Structures are given as structure tokens and as C-alpha cells.
Amino acid sequence: MRFRRWHRPEPYRDTSRKRAAFHRKQRLEREALPLFAEQIAARQHGVDEEMARRAVWWDEAERERRRMRAATWRKARARLFALPDTLRRTVREIWRTCPYPADPAYFADLLHQIDVGRVDPHRPPWKFHPALKARITPDPTSFDAAFHQIGQRKIGGGPKTTEADELLFCGNLGSGILFLRSRVRLIERHESFYTSSNHRLRDSKVGSGGHFVEIEVTGDCPDADLATVQRIAQAADTRPVVDRRAARPGRTKTGRAV
Questions:
Q1: Does residue 210 lie in a domain region?
Q2: Could you tell me the pLDDT band of residue 164, with boundaries at 50, 70 and 90?
Q3: Residue 182 burial by CB count (10 A; 0-12/13-18/19+): exposed, middle or buried?
Q4: Is there a single domain that holds both residue 152 and residue 241?
Q5: Domain match, 87 and 35 both
Q6: Where are the beta strands (DSSP E) in the chain?
Q7: Is residue 98 one of the residues assigned to a domain?
Q8: Domain membership of residue 86 as a residue range
């Protein structure tokens, strides 16, 4: 446990400033009631007697402060060891790094703040916790600005001329994270997926005049976002682009339960 070393208290020091302050205090008491100044002066004791009284009181006060400090430590440690093991280790760790003075009163207050829910021991307020914000592109100027590629695979299962790339993209237009699955489809049955360099939806490089790109959107995608996907995807490719929402599990493509 982190604690402040308690040094042996020094004896009370008799100084000229303390004597002057005591004389000033007695003078102000007499001047406050000038009609009774003589009676007040008669009850006031001398400065030597006051310094001796303070020396005795100082030692007694120091012993009482140490007794109260030790009692507070014992009480706080009892509360600490009453916590579950995992939480107790967490509290001990944050106490070692917290900016509070190594004092039992501050430690007891920390335990109280945790107990009432004002301090989260897993996210203490003296540590910086950056807010996690999703990367959102509400009004993208291009497909690349809104979505980034996270996957790619070959589909078709045949020779090179009968295979195409299936690309997976991820992005957020503001309504939630979206996953786009892009596939090249044949318009004519006898066409092939011959690689051409003038068709570039994120380097799919597949297609000719007999191809179109189908984009399947997964996630919460309102009509406005679906239209945005259509617009920016079409701007990124010379082939026709068709986008649609992915069918939810347990439902048909029309949205009806099966």
C-alpha cells in the first residue's frame, strides 16, 4: 500500500514571533472592551506560562493525531479487504498511481467514492480516456473516402476466364457500420470474366460490356444511405452498378419470413 511516512514530531518551538502574536492577542482582547480593560488584564496569564502550556499541549495533540490516523488506516484497510479479490487488486493498483496524498482520509474517501459509484475503478478520472468514436463519413465525395477494403476472394471455381473477384468493404455513412460485398455478374451467359484494365471499382479489374457490378449491403442502411452507396459506387466504376440490401437470416430477399 502507498502511505506517507510519519516522522517523529518535533517539540514545540518557542519563537519571538509566537510571543509577539500572543501579546497582540491579549492587547486586542483588552481594546475590545476598554471599560473592562483592567479586569481583563488581571485574568490574562504571562507569555512564559503560555509557551509552557503550548509545549505540553503540542505533544498531546501530536499523539492524538497519530492515534486517529492509525485508526483511520485500520478502518480503510478493513473496507479494502472486504472487497472481492479482483476489485481489491484494481483498487490497490489505482491507489498507487492516483494523485491524492498518501493519507488514510483520502484512501477512505476513494473507497467511499467507488462504493457509491462516483469513481469507476476501471476508468479512474485522473487518467485520460479518449472517447471511442466510429469513423463516419456522412457525405462522402468518393467510394474510397467512405469504404475501405477488408477482404477479397475468387469466385467461380473454374479457369481464369470464368473466375471473378468478390470484394468486401466496410464503412459508416452515419446510420451504423455497413459491409458491402461486391461481385461482378455476367449480363450474357456466354461472356467471360476476362481481365480488363479500364474497369476499376477498387481494382477489381474484371469486366467488359457484358458485365455489371452487384453490391450487397449488410447492416442498418436507410434508403438515403443506399442511394449514396449506389451513387459513389457507380462513379468509381465504368460498368453498371446495382446495389441491394442483403437478406436477413431467416428471411427471404423480399423481407418476408420463411
A1: yes
A2: low
A3: buried
A4: yes
A5: yes
A6: 147-155, 164-172, 177-186, 211-218, 241-245
A7: yes
A8: 16-115
Residue where one domain finishes, among candidates 74, 96, 115 = 115
Residues across the chain? 258
C-alpha span between 154 and 166 (Å, rounded)? 6
Check whether residue 231 and residue 148 sit in a common domain.
yes
- pLDDT grade for 15, boundaries at 50, 70 and 90: very high
Identify the three-state secondary structure at position 20.
helix
Please check the confidence at residue 5 and state whether its pLDDT lies above 60. Answer: no
In a domain, 81, yes or no: yes
Find residue 214's DSSP bridge partners: 183, 242
All three cell numbers of 123, joined, read: 476508468
Q: What percent of the chain has pLDDT over 90?
A: 48
| Alpha-carbon span 79 to 61, nearest angstrom | 27
Which residues touch 107 (CB under 8 Å, ≥6 apart)? 73, 76, 95, 100
Q: Which cell is 106 given?
A: 483520502
Number of domains in the chain: 2
CA distance 233 to 144: 9
| 3-class DSSP state of 7 | coil
Report residue 4's pLDDT band, with 50, 70 and 90 as the boundaries. low
217-235: per-residue pLDDT in tens?
998 889 999 999 999 999 9
In terms of domains, do 239 and 152 share one? yes
Per-residue pLDDT at 204: 47
Beta-carbon contacts of 2 under 8 Å, excluding residues fewer than 6 positions away, are 95, 96, 102
What gap in Å lies between CA 215 and CA 228, rounded to an integer? 12
Contact 215, 233 (CB under 8 A): yes
